[in-house]
Design goal:
mainly alpha, 2 strands
Protein backbone atom coordinates (compact mmCIF):
# COMPACT_ATOMS: atom_id res chain seq x y z
CA UNK A 1 0.00 0.00 0.00
CA UNK A 2 2.82 2.40 0.77
CA UNK A 3 4.32 1.88 -2.67
CA UNK A 4 1.01 2.74 -4.30
CA UNK A 5 0.60 5.78 -2.12
CA UNK A 6 4.11 6.82 -2.96
CA UNK A 7 3.37 6.35 -6.65
CA UNK A 8 0.82 9.09 -6.29
CA UNK A 9 3.69 11.35 -5.19
CA UNK A 10 3.54 14.19 -2.71
CA UNK A 11 0.76 15.64 -4.79
CA UNK A 12 -1.87 13.60 -2.92
CA UNK A 13 -0.50 14.61 0.48
CA UNK A 14 -0.34 18.25 -0.61
CA UNK A 15 -3.98 18.24 -1.70
CA UNK A 16 -5.09 16.79 1.63
CA UNK A 17 -2.90 19.25 3.54
CA UNK A 18 -4.36 22.18 1.58
CA UNK A 19 -7.93 21.10 2.16
CA UNK A 20 -7.26 20.45 5.84
CA UNK A 21 -5.56 23.83 6.30
CA UNK A 22 -8.43 25.70 4.66
CA UNK A 23 -10.93 23.85 6.82
CA UNK A 24 -9.00 24.69 9.99
CA UNK A 25 -8.95 28.37 8.98
CA UNK A 26 -12.67 28.40 8.28
CA UNK A 27 -13.48 26.54 11.49
CA UNK A 28 -11.43 28.98 13.59
CA UNK A 29 -12.72 32.08 11.78
CA UNK A 30 -15.28 34.33 13.45
CA UNK A 31 -16.51 35.71 10.12
CA UNK A 32 -19.92 34.46 8.96
CA UNK A 33 -19.81 32.09 6.00
CA UNK A 34 -22.27 34.24 4.05
CA UNK A 35 -20.82 37.63 4.92
CA UNK A 36 -17.47 37.68 3.14
CA UNK A 37 -16.76 36.51 -0.41
CA UNK A 38 -13.24 35.49 0.65
CA UNK A 39 -14.76 32.89 2.99
CA UNK A 40 -16.68 31.25 0.14
CA UNK A 41 -13.55 31.34 -2.00
CA UNK A 42 -11.74 29.33 0.66
CA UNK A 43 -14.64 26.88 0.73
CA UNK A 44 -14.43 26.47 -3.04
CA UNK A 45 -10.67 25.96 -3.00
CA UNK A 46 -10.87 23.47 -0.15
CA UNK A 47 -13.60 21.44 -1.84
CA UNK A 48 -11.67 21.41 -5.11
CA UNK A 49 -8.48 20.16 -3.42
CA UNK A 50 -10.26 17.47 -1.38
CA UNK A 51 -12.27 16.24 -4.37
CA UNK A 52 -9.06 15.81 -6.37
CA UNK A 53 -7.46 13.97 -3.46
CA UNK A 54 -10.51 11.69 -3.07
CA UNK A 55 -10.37 10.83 -6.78
CA UNK A 56 -6.68 9.93 -6.49
CA UNK A 57 -7.33 7.75 -3.40
CA UNK A 58 -10.03 5.89 -5.31
CA UNK A 59 -7.71 5.43 -8.28
CA UNK A 60 -4.91 4.13 -6.08
CA UNK A 61 -7.33 1.86 -4.16
CA UNK A 62 -5.72 2.73 -0.85
CA UNK A 63 -8.58 1.28 1.17
CA UNK A 64 -10.57 -1.90 0.83
CA UNK A 65 -13.35 -3.51 2.87
CA UNK A 66 -11.48 -6.81 2.72
CA UNK A 67 -8.42 -5.65 4.68
CA UNK A 68 -7.79 -5.00 8.36
CA UNK A 69 -6.77 -1.77 10.03
CA UNK A 70 -3.28 -3.15 10.68
CA UNK A 71 -2.73 -3.53 6.96
CA UNK A 72 -3.05 0.21 6.34
CA UNK A 73 0.26 2.06 6.45
CA UNK A 74 0.48 4.69 9.18
CA UNK A 75 1.14 7.44 6.62
CA UNK A 76 -2.04 6.50 4.74
CA UNK A 77 -4.40 6.63 7.73
CA UNK A 78 -4.91 10.38 7.37
CA UNK A 79 -6.53 9.86 3.97
CA UNK A 80 -9.47 8.16 5.70
CA UNK A 81 -10.54 11.65 6.77
CA UNK A 82 -11.24 12.81 3.20
CA UNK A 83 -15.02 12.07 3.18
CA UNK A 84 -15.52 13.74 6.56
CA UNK A 85 -13.64 16.88 5.49
CA UNK A 86 -15.63 16.99 2.26
CA UNK A 87 -18.86 16.83 4.24
CA UNK A 88 -17.77 19.60 6.61
CA UNK A 89 -16.76 21.94 3.77
CA UNK A 90 -19.94 21.19 1.83
CA UNK A 91 -21.96 22.49 4.79
CA UNK A 92 -20.03 25.77 4.59
CA UNK A 93 -21.64 26.63 1.26
CA UNK A 94 -24.33 29.29 1.56
CA UNK A 95 -26.29 29.13 -1.69
CA UNK A 96 -29.83 29.06 -0.24
CA UNK A 97 -31.34 27.94 -3.54
CA UNK A 98 -29.22 24.77 -3.30
CA UNK A 99 -29.32 24.33 0.46
CA UNK A 100 -31.20 21.02 0.36
CA UNK A 101 -28.79 19.67 -2.28
CA UNK A 102 -25.79 20.65 -0.14
CA UNK A 103 -27.29 19.05 2.96
CA UNK A 104 -27.93 15.75 1.19
CA UNK A 105 -24.44 15.78 -0.36
CA UNK A 106 -22.79 16.46 3.00
CA UNK A 107 -24.80 13.67 4.61
CA UNK A 108 -23.58 11.22 1.97
CA UNK A 109 -19.95 12.22 2.65
CA UNK A 110 -20.33 11.80 6.42
CA UNK A 111 -22.15 8.49 6.01
CA UNK A 112 -19.47 7.14 3.67
CA UNK A 113 -16.80 8.11 6.20
CA UNK A 114 -18.66 6.36 9.03
CA UNK A 115 -19.16 3.20 6.99
CA UNK A 116 -15.47 3.13 6.12
CA UNK A 117 -14.46 3.58 9.76
CA UNK A 118 -16.87 0.90 10.89
CA UNK A 119 -15.52 -1.57 8.34
CA UNK A 120 -12.05 -1.09 9.88
CA UNK A 121 -13.35 -1.33 13.46
CA UNK A 122 -12.53 2.27 14.29
CA UNK A 123 -14.83 3.18 17.17
CA UNK A 124 -18.02 1.69 18.51
CA UNK A 125 -21.11 3.45 17.18
CA UNK A 126 -24.38 2.81 15.40
CA UNK A 127 -24.80 3.97 11.81
CA UNK A 128 -27.68 6.40 11.23
CA UNK A 129 -30.26 5.35 8.68
CA UNK A 130 -28.95 6.25 5.25
CA UNK A 131 -31.95 5.50 3.05
CA UNK A 132 -35.66 5.01 3.41
CA UNK A 133 -35.26 1.30 2.66
CA UNK A 134 -33.06 0.94 5.73
CA UNK A 135 -35.71 2.65 7.85
CA UNK A 136 -38.37 0.33 6.47
CA UNK A 137 -36.16 -2.67 7.31
CA UNK A 138 -36.73 -2.13 11.04
CA UNK A 139 -38.28 -4.98 12.92
CA UNK A 140 -42.06 -5.08 12.37
CA UNK A 141 -42.49 -6.37 15.91
CA UNK A 142 -41.72 -2.89 17.25
CA UNK A 143 -44.01 -0.54 15.34
CA UNK A 144 -43.85 3.10 16.23
CA UNK A 145 -46.56 5.67 15.85
CA UNK A 146 -44.95 8.70 14.17
CA UNK A 147 -47.34 10.99 16.02
CA UNK A 148 -46.04 9.79 19.41
CA UNK A 149 -42.48 10.57 20.53
CA UNK A 150 -40.27 7.55 21.11
CA UNK A 151 -39.17 8.32 24.67
CA UNK A 152 -36.75 5.40 24.82
CA UNK A 153 -35.03 6.50 21.61
CA UNK A 154 -34.89 10.10 22.85
CA UNK A 155 -33.29 9.03 26.11
CA UNK A 156 -30.77 6.84 24.30
CA UNK A 157 -29.96 9.66 21.89
CA UNK A 158 -29.39 12.10 24.75
CA UNK A 159 -27.14 9.61 26.55
CA UNK A 160 -25.17 9.00 23.36
CA UNK A 161 -24.69 12.74 22.82
CA UNK A 162 -23.39 13.21 26.36
CA UNK A 163 -20.99 10.30 25.95
CA UNK A 164 -19.77 11.60 22.59
CA UNK A 165 -19.16 15.03 24.12
CA UNK A 166 -17.01 13.54 26.88
CA UNK A 167 -15.06 11.47 24.37
CA UNK A 168 -14.56 14.51 22.17
CA UNK A 169 -13.00 16.50 25.00
CA UNK A 170 -10.69 13.62 25.91
CA UNK A 171 -9.62 13.18 22.29
CA UNK A 172 -8.98 16.92 21.88
CA UNK A 173 -6.72 16.93 24.96
CA UNK A 174 -4.74 13.92 23.68
CA UNK A 175 -4.39 15.38 20.21
CA UNK A 176 -3.21 18.72 21.61
CA UNK A 177 -0.47 16.99 23.60
CA UNK A 178 0.72 14.94 20.59
CA UNK A 179 0.38 17.43 17.72
CA UNK A 180 3.67 19.24 18.32
CA UNK A 181 5.81 16.11 18.10
CA UNK A 182 3.96 14.79 15.03
CA UNK A 183 4.12 18.10 13.17
CA UNK A 184 7.80 18.59 14.02
CA UNK A 185 8.66 15.10 12.75
CA UNK A 186 10.09 13.87 16.07
CA UNK A 187 7.30 11.33 16.70
CA UNK A 188 7.94 7.68 15.91
CA UNK A 189 5.66 5.53 13.74
CA UNK A 190 3.58 4.26 16.66
CA UNK A 191 2.90 7.80 17.85
CA UNK A 192 2.02 8.90 14.32
CA UNK A 193 -0.36 5.99 13.95
CA UNK A 194 -2.04 6.72 17.29
CA UNK A 195 -2.32 10.40 16.40
CA UNK A 196 -4.13 9.71 13.13
CA UNK A 197 -6.44 7.14 14.74
CA UNK A 198 -7.37 9.68 17.43
CA UNK A 199 -8.15 12.22 14.71
CA UNK A 200 -10.38 9.70 12.96
CA UNK A 201 -12.22 8.91 16.19
CA UNK A 202 -12.78 12.60 16.81
CA UNK A 203 -14.29 13.03 13.34
CA UNK A 204 -16.54 10.03 13.94
CA UNK A 205 -18.25 11.94 16.74
CA UNK A 206 -18.38 15.10 14.62
CA UNK A 207 -19.94 13.21 11.70
CA UNK A 208 -22.65 11.69 13.90
CA UNK A 209 -23.53 15.12 15.28
CA UNK A 210 -23.59 16.70 11.81
CA UNK A 211 -25.85 13.98 10.40
CA UNK A 212 -28.27 14.50 13.29
CA UNK A 213 -28.38 18.26 12.57
CA UNK A 214 -28.72 17.68 8.82
CA UNK A 215 -31.67 15.33 9.31
CA UNK A 216 -33.47 17.93 11.44
CA UNK A 217 -32.90 20.69 8.87
CA UNK A 218 -34.01 18.45 6.01
CA UNK A 219 -37.31 17.81 7.79
CA UNK A 220 -37.85 21.57 8.08
CA UNK A 221 -37.02 22.15 4.41
CA UNK A 222 -39.31 19.34 3.26
CA UNK A 223 -42.20 20.71 5.33
CA UNK A 224 -41.56 24.18 3.94
CA UNK A 225 -41.57 22.89 0.35
CA UNK A 226 -44.76 20.92 1.00
CA UNK A 227 -46.45 24.03 2.43
CA UNK A 228 -45.43 26.08 -0.59
CA UNK A 229 -46.77 23.46 -2.98
CA UNK A 230 -50.04 23.33 -1.06
CA UNK A 231 -50.33 27.12 -1.16
CA UNK A 232 -49.65 27.13 -4.90
CA UNK A 233 -52.12 24.28 -5.56
CA UNK A 234 -55.04 24.36 -7.98
CA UNK A 235 -57.38 27.30 -7.51
CA UNK A 236 -60.70 28.32 -8.95
CA UNK A 237 -60.91 30.15 -12.30
CA UNK A 238 -59.47 33.59 -12.01
CA UNK A 239 -61.61 36.58 -12.86
CA UNK A 240 -60.90 37.78 -16.42
CA UNK A 241 -59.09 41.04 -16.73
CA UNK A 242 -61.50 43.96 -16.84
CA UNK A 243 -61.20 45.99 -20.02
CA UNK A 244 -60.64 49.72 -19.43
CA UNK A 245 -63.74 51.84 -20.00
CA UNK A 246 -63.75 54.47 -22.71
CA UNK A 247 -64.93 58.01 -21.87
CA UNK A 248 -68.62 58.72 -22.48
CA UNK A 249 -71.35 61.17 -21.48
CA UNK A 250 -73.89 59.82 -18.99
CA UNK A 251 -77.41 61.22 -19.62
CA UNK A 252 -80.73 60.85 -17.81
CA UNK A 253 -82.75 59.59 -20.76
CA UNK A 254 -82.64 58.96 -24.49
CA UNK A 255 -83.73 62.51 -25.32
CA UNK A 256 -80.74 64.01 -23.51
CA UNK A 257 -78.49 61.43 -25.15
CA UNK A 258 -79.56 62.71 -28.56
CA UNK A 259 -78.98 66.32 -27.52
CA UNK A 260 -75.53 65.78 -26.01
CA UNK A 261 -74.59 63.43 -28.79
CA UNK A 262 -75.25 66.16 -31.31
CA UNK A 263 -73.07 68.60 -29.43
CA UNK A 264 -70.17 66.21 -28.91
CA UNK A 265 -69.98 64.00 -32.00
CA UNK A 266 -66.57 62.60 -31.00
CA UNK A 267 -67.75 61.35 -27.60
CA UNK A 268 -70.38 58.57 -27.26
CA UNK A 269 -73.43 59.08 -25.08
CA UNK A 270 -75.28 56.59 -22.86
CA UNK A 271 -78.36 56.78 -20.68
CA UNK A 272 -78.20 55.81 -17.02
CA UNK A 273 -80.32 52.74 -17.71
CA UNK A 274 -78.06 51.68 -20.56
CA UNK A 275 -75.01 52.20 -18.37
CA UNK A 276 -76.38 50.06 -15.52
CA UNK A 277 -77.44 47.37 -17.98
CA UNK A 278 -73.90 47.23 -19.39
CA UNK A 279 -72.43 47.03 -15.91
CA UNK A 280 -74.85 44.23 -15.00
CA UNK A 281 -73.81 42.19 -18.05
CA UNK A 282 -70.18 42.63 -17.05
CA UNK A 283 -70.96 41.29 -13.58
CA UNK A 284 -69.84 44.49 -11.92
CA UNK A 285 -73.03 45.97 -10.55
CA UNK A 286 -76.71 45.18 -10.32
CA UNK A 287 -79.37 47.45 -11.78
CA UNK A 288 -80.74 49.71 -9.03
CA UNK A 289 -84.37 50.56 -8.50
CA UNK A 290 -85.12 53.54 -10.68
CA UNK A 291 -88.12 55.58 -11.76
CA UNK A 292 -89.98 54.38 -14.84
CA UNK A 293 -88.31 55.19 -18.13
CA UNK A 294 -91.16 57.50 -19.14
CA UNK A 295 -91.01 59.69 -16.02
CA UNK A 296 -90.35 63.36 -16.71
CA UNK A 297 -88.49 65.95 -14.64
CA UNK A 298 -91.63 67.13 -12.79
CA UNK A 299 -92.42 63.66 -11.55
CA UNK A 300 -88.84 63.17 -10.39
CA UNK A 301 -88.87 66.50 -8.55
CA UNK A 302 -92.20 65.58 -6.93
CA UNK A 303 -90.78 62.31 -5.67
CA UNK A 304 -87.75 64.15 -4.30
CA UNK A 305 -89.98 66.68 -2.41
CA UNK A 306 -92.05 63.87 -0.91
CA UNK A 307 -88.88 62.19 0.29
CA UNK A 308 -87.65 65.42 1.87
CA UNK A 309 -91.00 65.98 3.58
CA UNK A 310 -90.92 62.50 5.04
CA UNK A 311 -87.42 63.17 6.37
CA UNK A 312 -88.64 66.51 7.89
CA UNK A 313 -91.58 64.74 9.57
CA UNK A 314 -89.24 62.20 11.08
CA UNK A 315 -86.98 64.99 12.36
CA UNK A 316 -89.89 66.86 13.93
CA UNK A 317 -91.18 63.69 15.56
CA UNK A 318 -87.74 62.99 17.02
CA UNK A 319 -87.49 66.52 18.48
CA UNK A 320 -90.94 66.22 20.06
CA UNK A 321 -90.02 62.97 21.71
CA UNK A 322 -86.78 64.48 23.04
CA UNK A 323 -88.76 67.42 24.52
CA UNK A 324 -91.18 65.07 26.26
CA UNK A 325 -88.28 63.10 27.73
CA UNK A 326 -86.68 66.31 29.03
CA UNK A 327 -89.89 67.45 30.71
CA UNK A 328 -90.21 64.09 32.48
CA UNK A 329 -86.85 64.56 34.17
CA UNK A 330 -87.04 68.37 34.72
CA UNK A 331 -90.12 69.57 36.74
CA UNK A 332 -91.75 72.91 36.10
CA UNK A 333 -89.66 75.82 37.42
CA UNK A 334 -86.44 73.78 37.33
CA UNK A 335 -83.45 76.13 37.40
CA UNK A 336 -85.38 79.29 38.47
CA UNK A 337 -83.44 80.68 41.43
CA UNK A 338 -84.64 84.33 41.31
CA UNK A 339 -88.01 84.04 43.11
CA UNK A 340 -87.08 81.61 45.85
CA UNK A 341 -88.52 83.54 48.78
Amino acid sequence: MMAEAGAGGPRLAELLALGRRLWDELDASTEPSSGVSAVQEKVRQGLDALQQAAAMVAQLELFSENEELEEIASADLKFLLLPALLGALTLKQVDLSRRREHLESAREHFLRFLKLCRSYGLGSFQLPAGTSSEEEARSPSTPRDPAQPNLVAMAMSRTAKIERYKQKKELENKLASMSSSVESGTADEDQIREFYILQIQKWIGTSLEEIDSIDQELVILRNRDAARQAAAGPRGPSRPARAPMKPFILTRNAAQARVFGAGYPGLPTMTVDDWYEQRRKQGIASTPQRAPAGANDEELQKQQRETEEEEDDEEALRKARDWDDWKDTHPRGYGNRHNMG
